[in-house]
Amino acid sequence: MSKRGAFIVIEGLDRSGKSTQTALLLSRLESARIPAKLLKFPDRTTAIGKMIDSYLKSQSDLDDHAIHLLFSANRWELASSIEHLLAAGTTVVCDRYAFSGIAFSASKGLPYEWCRAPDVSLPAPDLAVFLDITPEAAKARGGYGEERYEKEEMQRRVREVFRRIGEEIKGSGLGAWVWVDAGREKGVVAEEVWGHVELLARGVEGPLCRLWTDEIPA
Ligand code: DGP
Asked: Mind telling me which HAMAP family this protein's record contains (predicted)?
């Protein structure tokens, strides 16, 4: 049986180095001659993505529930492309995914289970790498930008929800979740990320799981 591509998600707080690390990972995969594609959520280029972009820049206001569903819809509109890429043997690297959806919306006070619901049965990553950095260290990296969630107190809550999500994923057997200390020099972080990804990126034999519907009981 031919192997499928690996589905790798990189998560983290704002300013944790996700863009740098996903770019470094892509070039590493290319050097290893592993076909790979980088996706980023939110994908601000689609019609839904443009609404999200305008919300994040505070150019429009939306009910917390409504924007949460738009973020999820933005993932769903790319779900079949992700499946096709994986089936064709391409490794997919995603800068943010459903875990950001829960972490950011639950941090605003929406119920955790409600936040998870719209993403149930999306393709599940084979590996989620959480680039862990303290909100203080993230802020010290040149400060947060102008967007809605880029405030230290919000990021602190987001980090706590991510911790819960990671523990649950690890306990569920639904793919792997690793925490990587992202406060270090970027080359050191990239080396550790590569250590987690390398074997998976050589190809995955098992079927693609679905988020929170294919949980393996402990
Ligand atoms: P980025 O383009 O990676 O800087 O992400 C934009 C911002 O949107 C960032 O503060 C994290 C937040 N975000 C990303 N995905 C989601 C989501 O699904 N739901 C919510 N509420 N926020 C998200």
From this structure: Thymidylate_kinase
The reply to whether the predicted model has a pTM over 0.90 is yes
**Position 51 in a domain:** yes
What is the C-alpha separation between 186 and 203, in angstroms, rounded? Answer: 26
pLDDT tens track, the chain, 218 positions = 689 999 999 999 999 999 999 999 999 999 999 999 999 999 999 999 999 999 999 999 999 999 999 999 999 999 999 999 999 999 999 999 999 999 999 999 999 999 999 999 999 999 999 999 999 999 898 877 889 999 999 999 999 999 999 999 988 878 799 999 999 999 999 999 999 999 999 999 999 999 998 765 54
Structural domain including 186 reads 7-202
Task: Please choose from 99, 149, 161 the residue to mutate so as to test ligand 1's pocket, defined by most ligand atoms within 8 A of CB.
Answer: 149
116 in a domain, yes or no?
A: yes
d(CA 40, CA 82): 12
Q: How far apart are CA 160 and CA 140, in angstroms?
A: 20
Cβ < 6 Å from ligand 1: which residues? 14, 41-42, 56, 68, 71, 96, 100-101, 104-105, 147, 149
In a domain, 160, yes or no: yes
Ligand 1 atom 2, closest CA: 42
How far does the centroid of ligand 1 lie from the alpha carbon of residue 179, in Å? 19
What CATH number does residue 70 fall under?
Answer: 3.40.50.300
- For residue 151, the CA-to-ligand 1 centroid distance in Å is 13
Residue 59 covered by a domain: yes
The count of structural domains within the chain is: 1
Q: Closest ligand 1 atom, CA of 52?
A: 8
